[in-house]
Design goal:
Layout lengths: L1 E7 L16 H11 L4 E6 L3 H5 L7 E4 L7 H10 L7 E6 L7 H8 L7 E6 L2 E9 L3 H7 L7 H5 L4 E4 L13
Helix pairs in contact: 1-4
């Protein structure tokens, strides 16, 4: 069982508004996870969460990171704390990756296992989504601080890079 998370809590200061409120990005990210093989999908919201909830597809699950101003790590912690107890792995993506599709998610999710660590790569460059097997959640949570999420944890472990450059650019969008 795979639980997908869209991290969408930030204020989007460079964008001028929360990225969860930009166009159809939130709905698109939720759909990519759902159609890419995640059995359950949760959007992690924060800034202007009430407005973002209205943009979620009907029936979509969400949680609010009360400490969202602490950075991406707050969203990651909130998401993993809400993970389905039956999940073997979590697939984490960001709301500001509008060209990441279900095909990218499916390719990364195909590595799911409790001990797995995998992430999309674009031209050999690591990116999102990231797959975190359940065996790693406690370590990820212990090391998650500021705006880096799981980056410190992943930096010192063997992570399967899953090339997805033929499917998307994986570039985050920070301004209009």
């Amino acid at each position: 069982m795979i639980h997908g998370f869209v991290l969408a809590a930030g204020a989007g200061t460079r964008m001028g508004r929360p990225k969860a409120l930009v166009d159809d990005w939130l709905a698109r990210a939720v759909a990519a996870l759902a159609q890419g093989g995640c059995d359950r999908v949760t959007a992690v919201l924060g800034a202007r969460a009430e407005e973002a909830v209205a943009l979620l597809p009907h029936g979509a699950d969400h949680v609010v990171a009360a400490d969202w101003t602490d950075g991406m790590s707050a969203s990651l912690r909130t998401g993993l704390a809400a993970a389905d107890p039956a999940a073997d792995a979590a697939v984490v993506t960001l709301v500001d990756l509008p060209d990441v599709t279900a095909a990218v998610v499916a390719r990364v999710a195909s590595h799911a296992a409790p001990a797995a660590l995998a992430r999309a790569a674009y031209g050999g460059r690591p990116g999102h989504p990231v797959l975190l097997g359940r065996d790693h959640w406690a370590g990820v949570l212990a090391g998650a601080a500021g705006d880096e999420g799981a980056k410190p944890y992943l930096a010192v472990r063997e992570v399967d890079l899953v090339e997805c450059g033929d499917l998307a650019t994986g570039r985050d969008v920070d301004s209009r």
